[in-house]
Amino acid sequence: MRWTLSLIFLGLAWGATIPLNKLAVAGGHSTADLVFWQQLAGFALLLTWQSSRRLKGQRRGARPQWGLYFIVASLGTLLPHGLSFAAVSMVQANMMSIGIAVTPMAAYMIALGLGRETLSLRCGSGLLLGAASILLLLGISLTLLGQQAAWGIAIALLPGLCYAAESNVIAASARDRFDPVETLFYASGLSCLLALPLVLGSGTDPLALATLSLSFTALILSGLLHVLCYAAYFAIVARTGAVFASQVAYFVTIGGFLSGTLFLNETAPPALIVSLGLMVLGVGLVPPRPQQRQGLDIADSFNG
Question: Which of 5, 37, 168, 236 has minimal CB crowding within 10 Å?
Fold first, then answer.
């Protein structure tokens, strides 16, 4: 129950970044500029966070795992964020949140292929219930938005596939004393470095984005909230396994729908309540998979 409640709270908070991204793209800036500034904001927070932890003498993780940091930077940041900005410029924020919810099913299939999960009727049923809830929302949303949103929906599914692959890498790579904050710190730094050539090559002025506009403010808030949620997510993956943790995507969907309705006045179909019930039931059927001595507790990551 503890981990399920953690998933619900984390997903609802994470879902709020989707309407923030919708506001960010409304400024008309390039995807490269948006990704770079979002990552820079997150890296600034992580730099402060890491400095504070080291001054307090909080333990560090194992030796640097640069291969892992690169995977997180690419599959967990640059690719999905770029695709998300592209998709959210074409569809409503709540539609974008539906695409993220393909993550659990994809993570389960990847874990099965890698031999890290066994085929289970209970687990499979839980994930199918989650998938059914997404299909329900997808059908309603397509009816409301029409076929012109098809390309946006297709792109919106791709970030979830990136996150599914990344979660399996995290679950497999997390060793004793795995430190979610430190991993995200190095990965965010790499993301900024990798995004910088894209910004410089886009021919736009990245400094033009840095104003006190609603678009830039939403982008910075999205980057900061993303860092906090991502650090907690890493801790859950390291402690419970990729498949269980990836179900946070279902509640990201709910969070995206609710926040999109509240802040952007987007349409939220009545089927949302039915979908939420299916998601909660589905998560209850997929138990966390204990990871022996892998990872710090969530509290360890946020304390000190």
Answer: 5
Residue 190, token pair as written in the block: 């790499």
Q: Which two tokens stand for residue 213?
A: 């506009």
The number of beta carbons lying within 10 Å of the beta carbon of residue 44 is 16
Q: What are phi and psi of 213, to 5 degrees?
A: -80, 165
- Name the one residue in this structure whose structure tokens are 């678009």: 215
Q: What share of the chain is helix, strand, coil (3-state, %, to 5)?
A: 80, 0, 20
Lowest average pLDDT, out of 97-106, 222-231, 255-264, 285-294, goes to 285-294
Going from N- to C-terminal start, the domains of the chain cover: 2-302
Q: Which two tokens stand for residue 237?
A: 């993956």
What does the block give as tokens for 12? 């609802």
| CB of 162 closer than 8 Å to CB of 225 | no
Which residues contact residue 154 at a Cβ distance below 8 angstroms, ignoring those fewer than 6 apart? none
Is residue 33 within 8 Å of residue 216, measured between CB atoms? no
- Where are any strands of DSSP class E within the chain? none
Query: For residues 13 and 255, is the Cβ–Cβ distance under 8 A?
Result: yes
